[in-house]
Write a structure and sequence with these properties.
By secondary structure, the chain is an alpha/beta fold. The protein has helices at residues 47-57, 80-88, 136-145, 201-210, 242-254, 276-287, 387-404, 413-422, 443-447; strands at residues 31-41, 59-66, 69-74, 93-101, 155-160, 186-187, 227-232, 259-262, 291-295, 313-319, 337-340, 369-370, 378-379. The strands form 3 sheets. Strands 6-7-5-8-9-10-11 form a 7-stranded parallel sheet, with helices on both faces.
Amino acid sequence: MLAGLLAGVSLLAPAGARATAPRNVARPQPAYVPGEVIVRYAPGAGRPARAAAQRGTGTGEPRAFAPRTRALKIRDGESVRETIGELRRRPGVLSATPNWIARASAFVPDDPGQAGAPGGWQGVQWNFAPVTGINTPDAWERLNAVGRPGGLGVKVAVLDTGVAYASRRGFRRSPDIASNRFVQGYDFVDNDAFPDDHNGHGTHVASTIGETTGNGFGLTGVAYGTRIMPVRVLDRAGAGDSVAISAGIRYGARRGASVINLSFEFDSAVTRGEIPDIFDALRYARRRGTLVVGASGNFSAHAVAYPARAGSVLSVAATTEHLCQADYSNGGPDLDIAAPGGGLDAVVPGDPNCRPGAEPAGRDIFQVTFAGRSVKSFGVPGGYVGTSMAAPHVSGTAALVIASGVIGPNPTPAAIEARLKATARDLGTPGHDPRYGAGLIDAARAVTP
């Protein structure tokens, strides 16, 4: 469902507030257990040598937890650092260190959201949170650890209404997607090499996938290190024909996209036999090693809409902020997985997460895109809900999986899909079900060995 654009939220911060590299503003300082040290003894250091080391350094209460290794309490009131220095000078001591404390890791960028304060994006993007969403902070931390921040370098094609990728001929580039994150795309509506967005929907979708993150501006994207390929297959009203769509799929796969995102659906009356050209294109993409992700549709139907219903497409349903199936979201036996789409809860008997009417509707999905009718004015408009918004969460997570190397350096589409399903958070009926598929996508689990 193509959501209407609501009026004018102003830009979130001046352009001069941008930075060039992500900054983690919430990482705690290293810490260790006070009054305790860990000492490793040489193989020849017997009990008398160990006892002498303790007496000479004011330590005691040895606690063995590994061969020739002890945790010692400091008894003489000296600091951890002073005691370590003394121990390292003792005969028979191989090493002496603090008992370091590890903390749950998460990369928390400084993007201000609507609050205007570092990290304020967290108050807006519930869909990226650990509890209500897909847990991007821990996924980001994992990608940082393997040297591929934000899925660095993975190419994702966005087939949509275009993307605000450049400032040219009356259009402006989105202020929260860096220009070097785009690769050459194509416009299959106007048949030229300029896939400018005339609607805002495509920019919103692309922002969920790859909006610049950690730049002190705007909001965040799931896979902020990816290269976005804008492919325009929908017109300014959000409609596109099968010729443009099939050509766009082939274009993305031929130009090396690892993932193709399809945030649109055909009417429920359209059957498999009526779009053979699209099925041919999807098979072509599969042979090229491209994962295609598609929105399940917004008719509240018990069958996934095409093209997401095709077996070679990873179909995505929508969930609300309450972890319930969204009331508009299509489901059915062909559904693969779910992701945040926002909006009202569906009526799901027996599901405690679904409480339509008992509390306010969950929030929309927010990203930087056009704020009103002008293609030059950007903001964070409301009104964006749908499986169109859910699909890019999965596309972005797939890019993170590819970059992480967790299932090998060049995973097949089938392997990526299996990984996403195996690590999803189960919702609703235990196991695979027609409302949530394998469950809610979990970016952190998907990229963690």
